[in-house]
Amino acid sequence: MWRQVLPYLTLIVCSLLVATGWAKEAPTGPFIQSQCLECHEKEHPETVAGWKTSAHAVTSPKVDCVACHGDQHDGATVRSRKNDTCTSCHGGPDGVVVKSYRFSKHSVITILEKKRWNWSQPLSDGNYRAPTCAYCHLHDGDHAIAGEKKQLIPCKTLDRMRPKLCWNGVQHPVMTVILLVLSLLGS
Q1: Which of 138, 143, 155, 166 fits a disulfide with 51 by CB distance 3.0 to 4.6 angstroms?
Q2: What's the pTM?
Q3: Domain layout of the chain by residue ranges
């Protein structure tokens, strides 16, 4: 029950803190990267420090705050937690990384349930039924994303009726793909 009530309690408490002057209200946008860093280096230095050492910050061009969070405070965390934000840069729907995730049971659960999820919940254990891109790569708000690359590797199997794919040593049955196709056709 507390998981359903907590976001509303947080909103009420934050509103009261702003109204009484104990906390400041988030400024309105649109914002550019330098404005994000200027404020968040003071408010959340560990997040900015993590991003500065991440694969996103050292690539050219840099993947900045606006690319993932948008240029408005309203809905910034929700936007950054959804897979579409990540996949738009990481090869799109036909990219190797995206395809490998789509073959997983995690993706199927996410696709089937994402409209019912409360995306404003923190990326911590137990808040989401299946992991998303951000859940694994930005767990607990850690922005120090490593630049490791993994490949989708076909596995050899003796059972020709149930071919499998391996992702990082884990086998994902083709049934996952069938469920995904069925879910996409049903929506």
Answers
A1: 143
A2: 0.63
A3: 28-149
